[in-house]
Amino acid sequence: MNITLNELTEKIIGSAIKVHRTLGPGFLEAVYQAALAHELKKAKISFEKEKALPVVYGKIFLDVGFRCDFLIDKRVIIECKAVRDVTPLDHAQLLNYLKITKLQVGLLINFNVRMLTSGIKRIVNKYNE
Predict the structure, then answer these.
(1) 47-52 and 120-124 as β-strands: parallel, antiparallel, unpaired?
(2) What is the helix (H) or strand (E) element at residue 45, kind and residue range?
(3) What is the pTM of this model?
(4) CA–CA gap between residue 77 and residue 12 (Å, rounded)
(5) pLDDT, tens digit, for every residue of 46-70?
(6) Closest by Cα among 88, 124, 107 to 19
């Protein structure tokens, strides 16, 4: 996909809004993930679902079971939630995913809100070295 990072995140958010308008709050996270995958396919947005993320420790790879919900176009990580409140641990989880992949931007999307725009947090990896 040959678009800017901001354009890509706008398209992702648009797809998530479609899901939320159709389903509303109250479903399990897996339902939103499946619906979002469907919308991303319809929008022709390249993604990998449940992407394994190994941690590099020195010169070895630690396969410790980290999996992001979506890796979009090899540029953006999406973490979906369906919770009452997103916690600092949820933010830290996404930031850690960004650090180990050396990606710049992730979206933390909580579908269990009345208006989805209040459930979307853009996380930027300021430690990308």
Answers:
(1) unpaired
(2) none
(3) 0.92
(4) 11
(5) 999 999 998 888 888 887 878 999 9
(6) 107
